[in-house]
Amino acid sequence: MARSILAIVFSILLIAEASDAQSRNRHRSLASKPSQAVAFVTNPQSYSNLKNQAEETASAFLHKDFKTVVDLTYRRTVILMGGREKMASTMSRDVEQAESHGITFVSVAVGEPQDFQSVGRNLYAVVPTRVKLKVAEGVLLGEAFLIGVSEDGGNEWKFVDGVGTLDRGKLRSILPAAADKLRLPDKKQPVFFPNS
Length: 196
Fold this sequence. Notes:
Blueprint: H1 5-11, H2 34-41, H3 44-62, H4 66-71, H5 75-80, H6 84-100, E1 104-110, E2 114-119, E3 122-135, E4 138-150, E5 158-161, H7 168-174, E6 191-194
Antiparallel strand pairs: 1-3, 2-3, 3-4, 4-5, 4-6
């Protein structure tokens, strides 16, 4: 197999991005910008839209509706992936390849958004996800995350795959204004549960 099962899984978690980097830099505490964070957190509609649209992204991925996933992806990521059609095609191909090796996505659960930031005119948040996959030998549970970006005050959110952006250099190329301000979760290896 050209790529390991783990590499395939993480390359297609919600929004495909090509990066294996795991380096982490220091980041700013949320407490350093209390007025901006409080203004965002107290807007319940922004929060509701964020979680709903993250769940829409997860559902579209599970149903192999990759054009919808791309539509919900932050535009700079789409550009870096070669455009809308190429990104959707790449995701479809990667999922087909995973399935040909016995990997099936069972569920993608969206957690409670965290690390809300207001940077310039945009809002940002980290949205944890938990992915369950069936493999021939059992089940894999993996933790990942999305980075939500809103350019209109929280009405519409677009997403960046967190797994592909643990390298701050790559994240700076996608979100230059916010890359060093977001507190990203550590990359975690999936937990394997063998068949009984």
